[in-house]
Design a protein that fits this description.
Number of domains: 1
Number of strands: 0
Oligomer: single chain
Distance between the termini: 33 Å
Shape: globular
Length: 99
């Protein structure tokens, strides 16, 4: 994995982790955690660290950031269908969160 791919993955993971932390209930938090696990799985568990400092707590902004970062992973050879399915799960978690 090259540096740009690693940075994009780290950004996606950080946004999803921040969404899990900011979720209003445990079910939504668990759904975001599942997205994070699947994101790691897509990268053979070669995942970059998380840094949620400075991301804020606006769940709508976090969701848009996570979506954009995940979408951009297709440019690094990650299967587009896998990413689309991951985005569906992210959207479902976001809907469950009530945001």
């Amino acid at each position: 994995m090259d540096l740009e791919h690693a940075l994009t993955l780290a950004r996606a993971r950080s946004f999803v982790a921040a969404l899990a932390d900011a979720a209003v209930d445990e079910d939504a938090s668990a759904c975001f955690e599942r997205v994070l696990i699947e994101l790691d799985w897509l990268h053979d568990d070669e995942s970059s660290g998380l840094d949620t400092d400075g991301l804020g707590d606006d769940r709508e902004v976090l969701y848009r950031g996570a979506t954009a970062a995940i979408e951009s992973l297709v440019g690094f050879g990650v299967d587009a269908l896998d990413l689309e399915l991951l985005l569906v799960r992210l959207e479902a978690a976001h809907a469950l969160d009530g945001a």
